[in-house]
Amino acid sequence: MMRNFAAMMKILGIIPARYDSTRFPGKPLIDIQGKSMVQRVYERAKESEQLSRVVVATDDARIFEHVQWFGGEAIMTAQEHQSGTDRCVEAYTLLGEDYDAVINIQGDEPVIKPCQLNLLAFCFNDDDCEIATLAVKIKTNDILFDASKIKVVLDNNHNGVYFSRHPIPYQQRPAEEWLANHEYLKHVGIYGFRTDILKEVGRLPPSTLEKAESLEQLRWLENGYKIQVKLTEFDSISVDIPKDLDRVLEILNEV
């Protein structure tokens, strides 16, 4: 059943931010042209007209205090969480307030666009939407064959069928011809959850496919949950290593 207006929805944005990243320790606090990365993500999220509230969920006092310093809202969560989704589940529980949906906003994507968050929020006008995420068309072979860039295939109802680090589907033709003969999609790692579904997936144990590909969303698919995928024109830039900041600075300097 479709709701009449997205404004009726009460949607919480949660930004998981941990200090001890394996490849880039302390990256939420890294300076990017005078603002920390977590501040940039927070401010972008606050620009979304569809989010009723935005909080940073962290396990580190330095991040917690920094968010309060720039005027944001933060909540302390446990250190042992293995994923941002797990941290979102705890943060939602600790806040003790009811919401229709929760959007997990990656804390390492400082140039995320508010319109992308709005697009996810609109998915929950449909009461049947359980989980929602985004994808963008792949335009280069560098992205298509990069195992760090996650690919997704959809069914006719725009639900995710499978996510993989490999290019999917496989074609029986030279690899340089693949993009010319099929539209490939790159997953944009922002997730929205109906709140009852968020609590359910937070209790699921790691699955076989998840372990094989190291992709959390495969756990949800293996357990029968539907992931609605909306197409966006904008790719997000995830800062996984210091070199990724070069592309972020390029984008900021284009504005």
Provide a quick synopsis of the model:
The chain is an alpha/beta fold and 255 residues long. It has helices spanning 37-46, 61-69, 84-95, 114-123, 141-144, 178-181, 195-201, 208-213, 217-222, 245-254; strands spanning 11-17, 31-32, 35-36, 53-58, 74-76, 101-104, 131-137, 151-154, 160-164, 185-194, 227-231.
Characteristic terms for this protein:
Spore Coat Polysaccharide Biosynthesis Protein SpsA, Chain A, 255 residues, globular, alpha/beta, 9-stranded mixed sheet
Task: Explain what the structure shows.
This protein is an alpha/beta fold. The chain has a single domain (6-254), classed as Spore Coat Polysaccharide Biosynthesis Protein SpsA, Chain A (Alpha-Beta Complex). It is 31% helix and 22% strand. It is built from ten helices and eleven strands. A hairpin with a 5-residue loop joins β8 (151-154) and β9 (160-164). The longest helix is centred in the middle third of the chain and has 12 residues, at 84-95. The radius of gyration is 18 Å and the shape is globular.
Layout of strands and helices, then pairs:
Layout: E1 11-17, E2 31-32, E3 35-36, H1 37-46, E4 53-58, H2 61-69, E5 74-76, H3 84-95, E6 101-104, H4 114-123, E7 131-137, H5 141-144, E8 151-154, E9 160-164, H6 178-181, E10 185-194, H7 195-201, H8 208-213, H9 217-222, E11 227-231, H10 245-254
Parallel strand pairs: 1-4, 1-6, 4-5, 7-11
Antiparallel strand pairs: 2-3, 6-10, 7-10, 8-9, 8-10
